[in-house]
Design brief:
With 108 residues, this protein is mainly α. The chain contains 5 helices and 3 strands. The relative contact order is 0.14.
Length: 108
């Protein structure tokens, strides 16, 4: 995981974004935010499990399906299966050491 801090690379409203193998952070102080970094590490694991490109395809399809379904971008984002797994487990800093393979499927 390579961490890059840039307030210009992230869309408005985002503090972190993972584009394997990079984690982009908007604020330098977030380099010490273990919960945020754990959230992004969960995405790194998900991306590797799906061999990277299929992760992005699935992520976008899930987002657009839920945006149409809920008619709300924020709800669509929060209900993407990859985000559900990351948000639910971001505070458990040991989650990745015990996480089963393709664990995100239980959030579908």
């Amino acid at each position: 995981m390579i961490v890059i801090v840039s307030k210009y690379l992230l869309p408005k409203g985002y503090r972190g974004l993972t584009l394997w193998p990079f984690v982009l952070l908007k604020h330098r102080q977030d380099k010490g935010n273990m919960v945020l970094l754990n959230h992004e590490r969960i995405h790194i694991k998900q991306q590797l499990e799906l061999l990277i490109i299929p992760f992005y395809v699935w992520y976008l399809l899930d987002f657009f399906y839920k945006w149409i379904k809920f008619k709300d971008r924020t709800i669509a984002y929060r209900t993407i299966i990859f985000e559900r797994e990351a948000y639910e487990n971001e505070k458990d800093l040991y989650f990745l050491s015990k996480r089963p393979f393709w664990n995100f499927l239980k959030y579908s």
